[in-house]
Design brief:
homotetramer, 135 residues, mainly alpha, two-stranded antiparallel ribbon, DNA-binding
Chain lengths: 135, 135, 135, 135
DNA sequence: GTGGTCTAGACCACG
DNA sequence: GTGGTCTAGACCACA
């Protein structure tokens, strides 16, 4: 496994903990992390990302409260079985939300010169990888 | 005028000033704001976005230092002529940025119960539509 | 107002942040803190309780995520309007839960020599105080 | 034997060892465990509570140092004769403890949507029942 | 060796 | 002056 699934950019104004939180959630959605998988230890991930262990611990704790991860005292931190399906908003609401999220993505991407085509290709590659790992 | 080209989300952990900075740059790149266009006054935008005027002023000042905007005292703040010479980031930087943007999208989508598959299908539909219009 | 509504015991094996979390929730239930009330500043409460400001901040942040408090950037932290009624479990479930909580309370109280009578009198005094403050 | 006089809640932020310590002392004060009674073996209790045997052993050892239990090598662990000379805490200490216990009760109750009023009514009903039985 | 708690103290975002 | 983020480093609970 080529660790370094997660990255963090200290120059990004987004707080480190928020970047890591997003990265872990995204890795789960993308199937790179699956229910039952163990995450790197707090200290190891801190070393890999070159950030403080407390920052990693904070993220793990937050994701546990959110029901995404589960930690076993003295053993480690794991991906929960059910990534909380929850939030079954109406079809219209979900479409509106999806549209809004994608709009933001495309605006930000175009602002740094990334085309729609590139975004789509990248997302398709993630989807393909996920399908393969599900085998 | 339907001002409200810019939005800001106080729940987003990204600092308000960074969200606004990003939004203005994106609007310029997207052509919603063109060289010579006048931006809303600091106070007006602050009211619209329900944030403190100091925060807006800080962003305008930063963008002026960056050569994106120009202020004419007593008249207003305008978009500069340059079509942003920037956006020539390195390949690695662009990949990192793309990854970060997609992470945010997927994390936010999963938080409201939207799957990777749905996101990809939606983006593909947008790409198809755009291709057709180009015919 | 005689501040010092909250107390914390460093000798108690219960973590400080958990003690404070409980204390704040209890103060709200008891009506000592009401929707819209402002809480002490992070730093002030830290000084009063003789604990580190980070510990207080952590509790405020947790209670905000739980929907109990709301913070306004740069202004302060407030009790939310609706202390989340939520959790409308069945009548039988609630009775079972209540019984279990009270059992634990009485066991712990008797272990340190506090009688049922004393517990009841104390709770009644809290209820009376709350009724008065609602005027 | 319906062992299970003791319970432990891994979700409670109070350390497991402190929960068990409290539980054993409470069982003795409440008369569920009397001088000379034998406690479950370390391993058995660990299995019952689904915690590590080291944790149970640590609690037994601590209670032995405190003069609450006595171990007879090769035979088992027993409740000591002394009817706990302790429990003579100062008035201030008892008040502080009572307040802390009630805080926990109210916080937990509100978390599941049980009001202060309901708690008080329930406790009063217990007190009434007990008074009647004493007749 | 794993995660959890706490401290002290620096610096930032916001009003 | 308010809360928020991050660090470095100590010590504890648990397996």
């Amino acid at each position: 496994m080529n660790w370094m699934m997660f990255t963090v950019d200290p120059a990004d104004p987004t707080p480190l903990y928020a970047q890591l939180d997003r990265g872990i959630r995204a890795a789960i959605v993308a199937g790179q992390l699956r229910p039952g998988d163990r995450l790197p230890t707090v200290r190891q991930l801190a070393v890999d990302l070159r950030i403080n262990a407390n920052t990693v611990a904070k993220v793990y704790a937050e994701l546990e409260r959110a029901g995404v991860l589960a930690t076993q005292r003295g053993i480690g931190t794991f991906v929960r079985d059910k990534p909380t399906p929850a939030a079954s908003a109406s079809r219209r609401d979900r479409e509106r939300e999806l549209r809004s999220l994608v709009d933001r993505l495309l605006a930000d991407a175009s602002a740094i010169g990334i085309s729609l085509r590139e975004v789509v290709r990248y997302l398709e590659s993630i989807e393909a990888k996920q399908a393969k790992e599900r085998t």
